[in-house]
Amino acid sequence: MRLRHVLKATIFLVVATAPTFGQSAPRGDAVPDFSGIWAHPWLPGFEALASGPTALVNLSRTPEGRSIQTRLVGDYKNPILKPEAAETVRKFGEQSKAYFGFHNPRNQCWPNGIPFVLSSNGQQIFDRGDHLTIIYRVDHQVRTVRMNASHPATVRPSYFGDSVGHYEGDTLVIDTVGIKPGPFAMIDWFGTPQSPALHVVERYRLIDSDEAREGVQRANKDNVLPQFNNPPVVDFNSRGKWLQLLFTVDDPNVFTTPWSATVTFGPALRSDAPGATVWPEDVCGENPNKYGTEEDVKLPTAAVADF
Length: 307
Known about the structure:
Elements: H1 2-17, E1 37-39, E2 47-48, H2 83-97, E3 122-127, E4 131-136, E5 141-147, E6 162-168, E7 171-177, E8 199-207, H3 209-222, E9 242-250, E10 259-267
Parallel strand pairs: 5-6
Antiparallel strand pairs: 1-3, 1-10, 2-10, 3-4, 4-5, 6-7, 7-8, 8-9, 9-10
């Protein structure tokens, strides 16, 4: 009987003191609170900077100058691209203009990898003290960032790489190496290639809604908001904090220079707002025959069972 009481008391103590799902571990006052759902519904996603080496933009435009999300023609003349990479982007653009489309990790149900997944239209960051867990709305992909740690001497390549983070004042800095180029690996929606030398640095910080307006304007310039309901959607009326990611990509095998871009996340609409869903199911479902406009899907397969 005494052992049973001790076990009950121990279990109660663990449950009472452990953070619940979605709740941050104990933190100091100086550490920014990135909790909550952050939405970024624009496609293709990255926000090119106003100046300096920056991300590719879509050359395919409507008569009004808006990006056409179903025709992805990357600016293969962007000086960040080495000749071979530029030719790869050009060829993908020709396929897209012919309405054939081309394979990418998103439409082929493969892990999106870094930095492709950074354009995901929704994410949550969970602070666990010694590590962060980032969940992306697209196919519920999960990523772990080890805090205040170093990359190992030998990194085992993976789709999301080896990510280590630290805080610089109010900014979360994440450094990622060892990113595995999968069969459909690409930097962005335009098919920009990558190599094992890829190195990505992300810098996240909370900004006021007035400061976020500049990022939203760049997002609207080179991207498009889907016309269909695609929650979680941004609460554009929010006067609270927004989240902005400034990331830098370096891959000397692909690019002539490191380049940077932003992704501006807004607070998602409340769950009780019309048409809003806090975190809907988003699964890359198998449709091996596609729609007659592309090749059949190359879904991940295994020669033998893994169980």
